[in-house]
Write a structure and sequence with these properties.
Number of helices of chain A: 8
Helix content of chain A: 40-55%
Largest sheet of chain B: 5 strands, parallel
Shape of chain A: rod-shaped
Number of helices of chain B: 8
Helix content of chain B: 40-55%
Oligomer: heterodimer
Distance between the termini of chain B: 25 Å
């Protein structure tokens, strides 16, 4: 079974709680009212009558015991008494006298009541079985001529009963009206409060890969709902940025792969369109070989990057490896190219004991990339410095060159895949993936890379590696 | 026929230009959008091959700007992007056709011929003036069904004339479309080649087709002016 809608459940719970509170109120009020009615209207009247009767009985100890009521010579005729019953009993339960209103019946007196009367207690009780209505009885001990008797005065409670019944109906009616009102108000409030959610849900259902620029409708307030929408929209911003980066990467990758393929294909097709001299074929084949080499390098780097993306996440803790040999290998590897371009590489050799938590192959790849860039962008006779410093549990390796530097607006972009700076001769252009691979690799192993380029030219790449202490 | 190739990939541009020249095209190469814009406004081209991704501006932006200026020459856009949205954007910007890299050189040639046909007077690859036909695909020229052998320059001049039958084509216009040098330097050469062409086309036929418009240029058609 489908769960009920949140709105209906909310209103349901609200009405149920209101119902419980109302029920408690009704029961409590009814209890207080019954006590007031019984206590003041009935019990007080009964006790007063019983006291009057007892006083009269006690005042004439020599007279035979009788109930003072209608009769010849009795002036205090009381209409009140018409619906009241009076009887005098001995403490053995024997009825000694009773009022005319009782006729042939007598008021009940239980052994419990008798024993309490013997303790000289006034007993108030309700008897449900005496007549058509419950009857309220007060029994009061009285001493006549040295002997204990009890005066009992009783009255039907039907007046009180009617009042209480009417009050009960009134309470229930009001309670139901209030409950229905609360339910309607609750439903209205719930709809008002939850309508923005419905709108958000409808819009959220429409947002997909092709409509990522859309945003959820803001309720225009800074309450919980507003904050929820802000948070979700901020999340959509981040997702959109991520998707755009992926799309740009795919578009760039297709462009980067298709351009050499076009050159290769055109070269071959045009060569084959007509017979040519042998040197021309040789030149064409060599040119094709260049393109194939370029494509191989590009493919390797793309695969490296793709593998890193797939593996994702931070790498497990790796064994410490000495930094010195890694840097020396990287510098030695670039030696011939540096020599050809008359560029000097100054390596500030780290202490032999300095070790980092990064696989030597990874660190080697990073430094080879950085040195390769530095050599490519250095002017003839230029100088590259590799400096090592330790601070805060990190090793910072700075690779500085005296090249043309990087314009401020490109400083962040140089780490994007396929981004190539506008400065730099076409002959020195690479695949545009080297720095992207460096950054991804370092991210993976808990390192980082950044670049600075002062206005006067030159660039310094700083690689931070986790120190193996 | 003169073609403007706007392509920033120098090696690809060189290869394509070489192939097109071997097919008889006069090719100008512009390595940037600005360069392409300048060449297109100075020279008269029969077709433009425009790369989408240029270092200084979007090729599509250049295409749109040229069209707004009333530039009517057919434009073929080449690009490495193959998403449908990109093709649509390219065609909507006023390009006549769209070719995704890496394309076959033969397809480039066929598409250039196709957009030329669409913008010319006939939809057939066969250009016809009276009983003279020129096949732009097989490069064969026939008059009264007998084949005529032409040199590449003669063929190129005849193609220029036959693409605009009945219209006056100036010497400079011919020079610009057939020679890859300054037009002024070759107007005399135009006359020489046209006279050779006329001998091959009109000799032995009752109705001459190539007419001289004195001190201006030439016109092809069955009737003299």
């Amino acid at each position: 079974m489908r769960r009920l809608g949140f709105k209906i459940r909310l209103v349901g719970v609200y009405v149920a709680l209101a119902g419980i509170v109302l029920a408690l109120t009704v029961v409590g009020t009814h209890h207080l009212l019954s006590r007031a009615v019984l206590g003041q209207l009935i019990d007080d009247a009964l006790v007063a009558l019983a006291e009057a009767e007892a006083a009269e009985l006690a005042a004439e100890p020599d007279e035979p015991i009788r109930v003072h009521e209608l009769g010849p010579g009795v002036a205090r005729l009381s209409v009140e008494r018409l619906n009241k019953f009076v009887q005098v009993v001995g403490l053995d339960g024997q009825v000694i006298a009773r009022s005319v209103t009782l006729g042939r019946t007598q008021l009940p007196v239980s052994p419990v009541t008798l024993s309490r009367l013997r303790q000289k207690e006034v007993v108030l009780e309700t008897d449900e079985h005496f007549g058509r209505y419950p009857v309220r009885i007060v029994s009061m001990p009285v001493e006549i001529g040295g002997r204990l008797y009890a005066v009992q005065v009783a009255m039907f409670m039907h007046d009180a009963h009617f009042i209480l019944r009417a009050a009960q109906r009134l309470y229930l009616g009001s309670a139901l009206t209030i409950l229905v009102g609360l339910g309607l108000a609750g439903a209205w409030l719930a709809r008002r409060a939850l309508d923005p959610i419905d709108r958000i849900v409808r819009r959220a259902r429409q947002i997909g890969e092709s409509t990522l620029s859309e945003r959820l409708p803001h309720p225009g307030s800074q309450d919980e709902m507003g904050r929820l929408v802000d948070a979700l929209n901020a999340m959509l911003d981040r997702i959109q940025r991520g998707v755009e980066i992926q799309r740009r990467f795919a578009a760039n990758a297709s462009h980067e792969l298709r351009s050499p393929l076009l050159r290769l294909r055109t070269e071959i097709e045009i060569s084959l369109r007509r017979p040519r001299e042998v040197p021309e074929y040789e030149r064409a084949l060599r040119s094709c070989l260049d393109e194939v080499e370029w494509l191989s390098r590009l493919t390797d780097q793309l695969l490296t990057l793709a593998r890193l993306e797939v593996e994702g996440g931070p790498a497990a803790l790796v064994d410490p490896s000495a930094l010195g040999p890694v840097l020396r290998d990287a510098v030695r590897h670039l030696g011939p190219e540096a020599l050809r371009r008359q560029v000097t590489i100054d390596l500030d050799a780290p202490p032999p004991a300095l070790a980092v938590r990064i696989p030597p192959g990874v660190a080697g790849l990073v430094f080879a990339n950085l040195l390769d860039n530095a050599v490519k962008f250095s002017p003839r006779g230029g100088r590259i410095r590799v400096e090592v410093a330790t601070r805060d549990g990190e090793v910072v390796v700075a690779v500085s060159d005296g090249g043309p530097g990087i314009p401020p607006d490109e400083l962040l972009r140089v780490f994007e895949p396929f981004y190539r700076g506008k400065v730099g001769a076409p002959a020195t252009s690479g695949t545009g993936l080297g720095l992207a691979i460096c950054r991804t690799l370092l991210d993976r192993y808990g390192g980082a890379i950044g670049v600075e380029s002062p206005a006067g030219g030159g660039a310094t790449f700083r690689v931070r590696l986790p120190l193996a202490s | 026929m003169r073609l403007l190739l706007v392509e920033d990939d120098g090696k690809a541009a060189g290869l394509l230009a070489k192939g097109l020249r071997e097919e008889g095209w006069i090719v100008d190469v512009a390595p940037s959008g600005a360069g392409g814009d300048e060449l297109a406004s100075v020279n008269d081209y029969d077709v433009v091959v425009l790369d989408w991704l240029l270092p200084d501006q979007d090729g599509i932006e250049l295409c749109r700007r040229l069209r707004r200026r009333g530039f009517r020459t057919p434009i073929l856009v080449t690009t490495a992007r193959d998403a449908v949205a990109h093709r649509v954007a390219g065609l909507n910007a006023g390009a006549d056709d769209y070719l995704v890299k890496p394309f076959a050189f033969a397809e480039l040639l066929a598409r250039i011929q196709a957009i030329l046909r669409r913008s010319g007077p006939t939809r057939s690859p066969l250009l016809t003036v009276a009983d003279l036909t020129l096949d732009t695909v097989s490069y064969q020229v026939r008059r009264d069904d007998s084949p005529i052998a032409l040199t590449p320059k003669e063929y190129a001049i005849l193609e220029v004339l036959m693409r605009h039958p009945g219209q006056l084509i100036t010497r400079a216009q011919i020079a610009e479309r057939v020679w890859d040098t300054e037009p002024d330097a070759v107007t005399n050469l135009v006359d020489v080649h046209v006279s050779h062409l006329r001998q091959k086309i009109d000799r032995g036929h009752a109705i001459p087709l190539i007419h001289t418009v004195r001190s201006f240029g030439y016109r092809i058609g069955p009737e003299p002016t």
